[in-house]
Design brief:
Oligomer: single chain
Shape: globular
Order of helices and strands: HEHHEEEEEHEHEHEHEEEEHEHEHEHEH
Bound molecules: nicotinamide-adenine-dinucleotide
Number of helices: 12
Strand content: 15-25%
Number of strands: 17
Strand order of the largest sheet: 9-8-7-10-12-16-14-15
Helix content: 25-40%
CATH class of the largest domain: Alpha Beta
Amino acid sequence: MTAPEPSELAYVPFVSVENMMKLVHHIGVETMLHDIADYIEADFHRWELFDKTPRVASHSEKGVIELMPTSDGEVYGFKYVNGHPSNTKEGLQTVTAFGLLAAVDTGYPVLLSEMTVLTALRTAATSAMVARHLAPKGARTMAMIGNGAQSEFQALAMKAICGIDHLRLFDSDRRATEKTVRNLEGSGMTLTACTTPELAIEGAQIITTCTADKQYATILTDNMVGAGVHINAIGGDCPGKTELHKDILNRATVFVEYPPQTRIEGEIQQMPGDFPVTELWQVINGSAPGRVSDRQITLFDGVGFATEDFSALRYVRDRLTDTGLYQNLDMVADPDDPRDLFGMLMRSKG
Ligand code: NAD
């Protein structure tokens, strides 16, 4: 491949929300979830290559704004994401995001993308990829506690990747459950709306908690969790924001993305700093055990890590060229003489 002309590098492909939605429909949502899960898993295989750091968080009374950077040595990426649980009361979303990829050898950006939709896809793909390794064999029923923006994506990923065909739903706001049921009608899953979390988890082999509340919440207590289940706890992702009673952590084998970040943000923030955890990348490359018995409780303490966003952006970049679903943004100044930025500015005066 010949190196791009400098002027070509001045234009950065931008994937708007509208084009992201067209891309999802073009590929098919379940196929895309499957593909992104494979990209995420492939990058977990290359784990040691990546620059890793806990995400950089700016906390405020109502929420958090975070930057999530990483690099594999060839490509650099970051995501900007917020988490504001009270936003929905104002008609705004809890989570919005955008992200960027850049070439490490020049530092020039190569992709800018909306990531609100893409984050929901990548979070669901990650959950299902992890469940593919840890959930009990033959799992068919999932309890979905928290029926907000992420919930349908979580359900469809678990269907496409793990074969879940029965969903038991609970949310403290009945309207959220009604919305999820409406959206998933015709998906091929049996949907059961439940009035309590206890009812929702009945007979479920996978329990997903994906609630938003800026507090130490107790969505699941210890007596609710039976032997052998897989818990996909993804809603608690901030200091002071958890979903599980800590007694559950003492009974479960806990799997995490990147321990230095999860110890700050995950369910394990409730535990001592040396609380034992298994790193996902080691399960994925076979150097650490995943599920070892039918009665074991496996717990994915998922907070979302930068490599997962990197994988999702990498997938979008790879799928863009043959679809044309992007606009070229005039985003990087491109003076004829790279040292004459000021001259370019003056000549533009006309
Ligand atoms: P959302 O605000 O759209 O939905 C959250 C739902 O939780 C709401 O319907 C709310 O009524 C419900 N809820 C709140 N408290 C509850 C309780 N005690 N019991 C039952 N339901 C309750 O938010 P979302 O976009 O779906 O995100 C959910 C959570 O997931 C957020 O905390 C977000 O930060 C987190 N998240 C994590 C990741 C990750 O990678 N781990 C990625 C995206 C979002």
